[in-house]
User: What shape does this take?
Amino acid sequence: MAYIAKRLLFSALILVGVSFITFALLYLLPADPVRQIAGRSATAQTVENIRHQLGLDQPFFVQYARYFWSLVQGDLGRSYVQRAEVSSLIAARLPASLLLMAAGIVVELVFGLTLGIVAALRRGTATDQALMITSFTAVSAPQFVVGLLLLYVFAVELGWFPIGGYGTFAHLVLPAVTLGVLGMGWYSRMMRSSMIEVLRQDYIRTARAKGLPRLTIFVRHAMPNAILPIIAMIGIDIGLFMSGIVVVESVFGWPGIGQLAWQAIQRVDIPIIMGVTLVSACAIVLGNLLADLVTPLIDPRIKLRD
Amino acid sequence: MLKRTLQAALIVGVALAVPMGAMAQQQGGSIVITYKDDVATLDPAIGYDWQNWSMIKSLFDGLMDYEPGTTELRPGLAESYEISDDGLTYTFHLRDGVTFHNGRGLVAGDVVYSLNRVTNPVTQSPGAGFFDSIEGFEAITAGDADALSGVSAPDDKTVVIKLNRPDATFLHKMALNFASVVPEEAVAESGADFGREPVGTGAFKLEEWRSGLRVVFTRNEDYWREGLPYLDQIVFEIGMEPIVALLRLQNGEVDIPGDQIPPAKFLEVMGNPETASRVVEGGQLHTGYITMNVEMAPFDNVDVRRAVNMAINKDRITQIINGRGVPANQPLPPSMPGYSQTYEGYAYDPAAAIDLLAEAGFPDGFETELYVMNTDPQPRIAQAIQNDLAKIGIKADIKSLAQANVIAAGGEKDQAPMIWSGGMAWIADFPDPSNFYAPILGCAGAVPGGWNWSWYCNEELDALATKADSITDPAAQEERMKLWEEIYVKVMDDAPWVPVFNENRYTMKSERMDGADNLYVDPVHIPINYDYVYVKPE
Amino acid sequence: MVNRNASPAATHPGPADPPAGGADPAGSGEERRRSLPARLARRPLAILGILVILACVAGAVFAPVLTSYEPDVPLFEGLTLTGAPLPPDADFPLGTDLLGRDLLTRILYGARTSLIIGIAANGTALVIGTLIGAVAGFFGGFIGSALMRFTDLMMAFPALLLAICLAAIFQPSLWIVAMVIALVNWVQAARVLYTETRALSQREFIEAERAMGAGTARILLRHIVPHLVPTIIVWGTLGISTTVLLEATLSYLGVGVQPPTPSWGNIIFENQTYFQSAPWLVFFPGAAILALALAFNFVGDALRDELDPTQRD
Assistant: This one.
């Protein structure tokens, strides 16, 4: 428990660090948010008025201190462009993002692990080679093209799924698969390599020599060890998904925070960029913490240390 | 040639509009429109985007309005108006029977409140600057006053607006979204969230808004224009790639892709007679241009700028964008009043350009930078420009950046020698030639953070522009347009820009959508006029 | 509970564990290394891999000789009158792009950028990730947690924003984009290798080495890192594809190579919306990326097997 408390404390520090770095980068960015708000017909006076109202005429550290103080009180501010509260904008979209993320991870795990295990057990065969090429193709294919191809085939031609949108399970399938294809490639290669490494360990050989059933060896001895790196990868994926789903969201019209962040970056909407960065930083930090907490449950030799 | 065809098409469109509009329209039905980017806000004082511009027009009304599908002014919430002889006092008489969506009747005080609100710096309206000709504008901008001294309501039906100078474009400004009338109590109740809970007098009212997913409008049953709108409901679906929106259109799920036909699909759509028949083509008040920073060497030399004007192969560039535009030779688009039919511009002549460059002291050319916004097809167009420049010895490195960065670079006096304006280019706020001058070619825009990216400032032309905009007599408009024509021809003589092309608009619609074609390429309601389109009977 | 009765000495590569099938007569590690090229030559897939890599390098180096077109000059005859690109034909073996340039020429020249990204930037990221992951996992304690919390921070770091800032400050160049990729891409590898190292360093053979008084550096380099090789190969080879594509995103934001300089990633990126009307614009550069990644995978697999005979059972 002390370990968890310590990690949570570190997590808070990381969030502060991320907020500072992001704020500094936005400050350095040579694009003026006030000009974006004021528009192309604004007079110099209007521009200065807006700059003053937003406190953007203050020195950097004053601006950051103000932001930080609001943040501590749970206030993420208001969007410059949308004028709405950042917290409500994020809250409206976070469920969709989390759902897509969870579904994407399920796809990755189910397909990635299956392909990886099959490849490891059939090592060196034609099946193994075919699965390898599949994995590499999955990783090399641009997401935009994968998403559109899936739409053409399964939504337009076959009509099995709706052409984008949000709401039902049917809406979720294609975006989740598109999102999961890349991870599937990674997971299957990692799983294969990890499984091969484990299968050649002496304890597995010994277990075989003892005549234990194959399935028992596999489930009780091989899997837990082989899956360790995969768990670390899930922690990473949470981070990648929080920031990297812009393409999938726009292809499928999925109302997640990736779109929100991308449009905010285009328009220098600092409060939204800050908010989304912090939310995804939270997810990343928690994801990694969970991964570290789960690891010892699977392999008790590994102890929580810090 | 092409230019003339386009104008003919526009005229035919206008002519057709009236009889067709009067025949078959019927009320009812719900349509689906898609947009890729979020609707930022529906507050008329703030919204200034491609997607919310026309949406706001359907939720709110201003004193003035335009005949649907045209650039002709007509009274809106004002039933009539008078202009004093000196052109400094406008008196508007409000219509009877106009109510806000919250049920309250419109009074003149609402107009006064709305103009005070949009010009008050606290509102942070990007449109505040349009109202600088109203008396008291400086005081409210400087924070010395809470209200415009020039705007008053002697009674509930009358609004009097006094100007500090004659302003020929004032009625156009009263038709801008920024001049829409909002009810004070609703703004007070919603505060900063008014943009999410808009209350206006418009043909539609907001029914539902799910961030990043959809916005739903329903008919305002009490709308003051008899029989309007035709549609019961409009569903705006948000967040989808234009290319996917088109797939959905082909599948019968979408009626209008609001982001137009994506470049990647344009030839396919236009090559198929069935789909091409559902595309409405029209001009728009847009010019794509290259700016040359006259403060930065060697573009401080007018001959260099003229040479560049001769070097750009505009026909080739229009070919690269699949002919979605017409080559331009002057800042104004052809459908704008004041466009010079006689001006011939700089003909494409690389050999003469090389000679001129040599005369200007650059026989071996020079190196420079071309800034461009990074979304397709802009970098492609920039590469074509780069290639044209290379042919006369100018080596231009392309800097392809996010829109905000390019705008920021253009607003610095010494940063961007050349900018291709595509994607950020000027689309007129209102159909008047003055709108193309002050912010982007006049001295007022040549300030840090301004939009005059060529930093061209000609005091003499500024004086002419002021003179032109002081001609408020409706009878003297022809004289005023002559003056504007002269101004733009003189601008081209100094050549701070290379006008490259005027983009056309192509709106695709579903089979069931009906109404005159010009409603789908409405020059004011961009992209379409929601109030007047309708669906065919089932 | 995992069955643990393995003897430490037998679990790691060593002379006591000769390769299966007796294909290798070499007895000592040193001799094995010396004859490595000869041994690789007996693996057809490895040879194929090496050939593909050499072909990519040759294409990049000799591009001006291999093609008669310029990579950045739009050709009038390269577009239809309505501005559509041309499919592969006799004049343009891989077709033309949206500006009427020869796609084969663009891919050849693009190899220059993409090889540097996919090999140098990706490789640097991998080395950093391996070092940090292995050191943090092996030492644990303060060093370990400090390194891993730094990794967490880097993972939460808004890399796109950094890219946009750099784009505005520096002249765009290949080296900046390579640096950004090296800077942000090591993080994931570090996380995974950290977890693996943690598990490894609890193993008996490592503990036995420690008990026998082996130096930390020796244990880390001789016993930990070799066991990480399979993961490093997976990460390095798949990373080729992802970094080559990532380069396009970063260049789009203005940090990397600017148009008209081609790279495999930006050819795909620019043209992906056209993949239905002009599939060749996406298919050929995509195939190039896939081929390069697979080639490295073949070579990597072969290398691993040769270096670590215990893998072959």
About this structure: Residues 103-139 of chain C form the longest helix (37 residues). Residues 1-31 of chain C have pLDDT under 50 and may be disordered. Residues 42-57+99-311 of chain C form a domain with the MetI-like fold fold (CATH 1.10.3720.10). Chain C touches chain B at residues 72-74, 76, 79, 81-84, 98-99, 164, 167-168, 172, 252-254, 258-260, 270, 273-274, 276-277 (CB under 8 Å).
